[in-house]
Amino acid sequence: MPKIKIGSHVKMAGKEMFLGSVKEAESYGANVLMLYTGAPQNTVRKEIEALNIEAGWEYAKKAGIEEIVVHAPYIINLGNTVKPETFELGVAFLEKEIKRTAAMGSRILVLHPGSHVGAGIEAGIGQIIKGLNRALDENEDDVYIALETMAGKGSEMGSAFEELRMIYDGVHKRDRLRVCFDTCHVNDAGYALVEDYEGVLQQFDKAIGLEQIAAIHVNDSMNPCGSHKDRHANIGEGCIGFAVLKRIVHDERFARVPKILETPWICAEGSNEKTIPPYKEEIAMLLE
User: Fold this and answer.
1) Residue 209 contacts by C-beta under 8 Å, 6 or more apart in sequence?
2) Which pTM does this prediction carry?
3) What is the DSSP string of 225-279?
4) β-bridge mates for residue 110, sequence order
5) Secondary structure class of 6 (helix, strand, coil)
6) Whole-angstrom Cα distance, residue 221 to residue 164?
7) Distance (Å) of CA 105 to CA 51, 99, 141, 176
8) Which residues are within 8 A (CB) of 29 and not within 5 positions of it... i.e. 6 or more apart?
9) Rounded Cα–Cα distance for residues 24 and 21 (Å)
10) For residue range 165-208, what is the model confidence (pLDDT) as tens digits?
11) Torsions phi, psi of 162, nearest 5?
């Protein structure tokens, strides 16, 4: 089996930007990483020239990091039919993020499919398809949009595998689509990963195809199956548990798929502030 690709979400900030991201990933013992090109809650972005990409990759190669994943910001909501300005902003920003992802040397841009904000799933999915077609039809960059499996909180779409299939079916360039499989979200959406790991993967395979999984978010869940809550827990400390998460990390079908931890930071002894990243220890645990 090839070397397991595993890492975590890392920051990209300060003077070093991408170089700093790579150094952080190296300190965790990671060989892949995921980052946002700026704050996930807003559209403020530095120019591509200021991201320190060349120096970052030079360091990455020496550190054994050969692949990165980019995550699109949460503010993109392609499913919004209620506020046209929100949809238009989302499409325009997604087009820019595809170009930034390509410039970063990544082929995977993870995207939350979107929320219908009360208009209903059918209208929302139609709007997502419209937005993806606009963003992809005029774009030739060699980047996949990896639609993330969602927990189903509020009006967000993509918690059912069949909803992702519907998006695939409507997109002109569906060969540019992939899926980011989030273990916490799949659990919270109601898929019984703990009791029926193989059954859940078979359901996914039937709806979309396991070969479409381009990234896996490895997260435990604070809440039981079907809760639709989306609260990540540290590895082995939630309702999914260590055994299932280790199983997916070591599953040979996903040998070439980057596994990314997004687990919560932890508190120093005697403190209530979460200041310590858990990734070095959690990566080591999962690789044992």
Assistant:
1) none
2) 0.97
3) TT-----EE-TTSSSS-HHHHHHHHH-GGGTTS-EEE-PPPEEPTT--SEEE--H
4) 71, 146
5) strand
6) 22
7) 12, 10, 11, 16
8) 280, 283, 284
9) 5
10) 999 999 999 999 999 999 999 999 999 999 999 999 999 999 99
11) -65, -30
